[in-house]
Write a structure and sequence with these properties.
alpha/beta, Rossmann fold, six-stranded mixed beta sheet, 10 strands, binds adenosine-5'-triphosphate
Amino acid sequence: MTTEDVTLSAEGLRAGYGDLVAVWDTDLTVHRGGITGLLGRNGAGKSTVFRALAGLSPAQRGAVRWKGEEITHLPPYRRSALGLAVVQEGKRVFRQRTIEENLLLGGFSTRLGRRALRERARSVYARFPVLADRRHEPAGGLSGGQQQMLAIGQALMSEPEVILLDEPSAGLAPSVVAEVLDVVQQLGRDEGLGVLLIEQDVDLVAGLVDTVTVLELGRVVYHGEPSAPRIRAAMEAVHATEGAK
Ligand code: ATP
C-alpha cells in the first residue's frame, strides 16, 4: 500500500459524548481495495470511531481525512457526496417501505433522477437476487440476513469508494454471517472499495482483513497484522492491568 491508496484516515482522533471521552487518540487508515478491521469488546469505542468517521458525532481532537484533505467538520451528507457510505449497527432498513423504495432512498444523496437510481438498483439486484424477487414487498418481511444485505445494497446505491460497516454480523445465524462476510470480501478484494469492518469476534476478523486496529477501553491496544493470537494477547494484557488496579 502507498500513501496514495489511503482514501480515509483518522489521525489522533479523540471522540465521545459531551465532556466524556470515549475514544482516545486513534489512528486508522482505509485504503482502496483493502479491508481494515476495527475490533474490540462491548463498549470499547468502535461505534464512536464509526460515528466520527461518518460525521454523525463531532471529533473532540485530531483529524479525519479523505484522500489527504481534512473533512473533520464536514456533515454526513457531504462525506457521502465524496464517496463515503455507512451501514450503521442495528439500523437496517425502513421496514414499512418496499425493498425497491429502500434502495431508491439509499441513493437519495446522489440527487440522481428515479430512472438513474432504478438502473443502480438493478446492479444491487444482480448482487442480491433474493431482493430482486421480492422488490415490491415490505422490507420488514425479510429475514435478518436479507435485511442486512438490503442495508448494504442501500449503501451501494451511492456508488461509494469507501464503505464503513458497523457489526454487520450482529444478531445473525452463523451461516448467514458467512454470507455477509463473503459480500464484504467481494467489495474489498474484487471490486476495489475501501472497507472498514467493525466486529467483536477476533477469529472472524483476523481471517478476513488486511490490517486491524484493536480498541479496548477507548484506547488502541494493537495495530497491524491481523494475527489472532497477537490480538488476543493485546486485549488480555489490558484487562489484566485493569484487574490489578
Ligand atoms: P458495542 O460493541 O457494544 O457497540 P462499541 O465498541 O461500539 O460497543 P461505543 O458504542 O463506541 O462502543 O461506546 C464507547 C463508550 O461510550 C461506552 O462507554 C459507552 O457507554 C459510551 N457511549 C456510547 N454512546 C453514548 C452516548 N450516546 N452517550 C454517552 N455515552 C455513550
